[in-house]
Amino acid sequence: MAITLRFSKGHGTGNDFVLIADPEGQLELTPERVRALCNRHFGIGADGVIRAVRSANLADGAAALAEDPAAEWFMDYYNADGSVAEMCGNGIRVYAEFLTRSRLALLPPGDTLPIGTRAGVRDVQRSTLGYQVDMGRWQLEGGEPLVNARELRVARPGLGVNVGNPHVVVALSDDAELDALDLSYVPVLDPEPVDGANVEFVVPGDPLVKDGIGRIRMRVHERGVGETLSCGTGTVAAALATRHWAGERAPSDWRVIVAGGEVTVRMFPAEDGEHVALNGPAELVFDGELTLA
Ligand SMILES: N[C@@H](CCC[C@H](N)C(=O)O)C(=O)O
């Protein structure tokens, strides 16, 4: 049966989302419906869909509430191809803006809003750039998959980084090499990770570190989407990988330039080990009403 719903469209550094409030978890968001919403010719057009649902009202929310009973809201995230992802770093900032603007949640400056995700609870705060997200713990994956992409003359070793969702980061030598990539083709990974991966191509700034802040430029091919103007978890993975390659004296603060703008990434000590924070803008650009078949 067709249903009519209110939606908002938003983006974080050009990574764009359709946001739908479904507090009681009654909407059946099938892969077909997600693909229809994200279609840029026949739908609204977006890199993903975010459903705002109370953690108590969906199965994945139970783990979030067990981790933090204050995580009332869950970010139910879908890629444009209809697949489910664990986490979205740009999406969670846009989601915080959506929740607060629709008065589903309050977030006074200085306060923290815990949000449930499939990768665990993430704490969000307002910042001068927009929103800052504690992305929690991360890990380098073993092995170095070889990565090839259109217009890359020779396959390069990638570094697997898990920041709640899977990434493979590849270092390129300069801007010309980065600009030449044709990411309308899916990069080929050998071996191919079982759950797939988002692939980030990075080049160092010149110089890499200026005034104590690391600088990189990045393009990304997102799992379940294709090339996007930005990927928040990807910027975090790229900064972590670059620090790893740069060695012990590398900084903990990074600026990451993407096609859709700029975000900052900070690694900092926490009680359970090192965490990483992502800071960047979040904008809601229009609201509307849609009918889903
Ligand atoms: N654009 C997002 C990441 C969305 C999920 C990703 N495509 C995946 O499948 O893991 C971000 O900003 O982090």
Instruction: Please report the total strand number as a whole number.
Output: 19
Element order: H for helix, E for strand? EEHEHEHEEEEEEEHEEEEHEEEE
What gap, in angstroms, lies between the N and C termini? 7 Å
- Average pLDDT over all residues: 96
Query: In this structure, how is the largest beta sheet organized?
Result: 19 strands, mixed
Judged by helices, strands and strand pairing, the structural class is alpha+beta
CATH superfamily label of the largest domain: Diaminopimelate Epimerase, Chain A, domain 1
CATH-assigned fold name of the largest domain: Diaminopimelate Epimerase, Chain A, domain 1
Strand content: 35-45%
Q: What's the gyration radius in Å? A: 18 Å
What is the level-2 CATH architecture name of the largest domain? Roll
Q: Bin the helical content.
A: 10-25%
The poorly predicted ranges are none
State the assembly state of the protein chains: single chain
What's the CATH class of the largest domain, please?
Alpha Beta
The bound ligands are:
ligand LBFN2T5F
Number of helices: 5
Global morphology: globular
Integer count of domains: 2
InterPro entries: DAP_epimerase_AS (IPR018510), DAP_epimerase_DapF (IPR001653)
Subunit structure: Homodimer.
Binding site for substrate: 15, 79, 89-90, 165, 198, 222-223, 232-233
EC number: 5.1.1.7
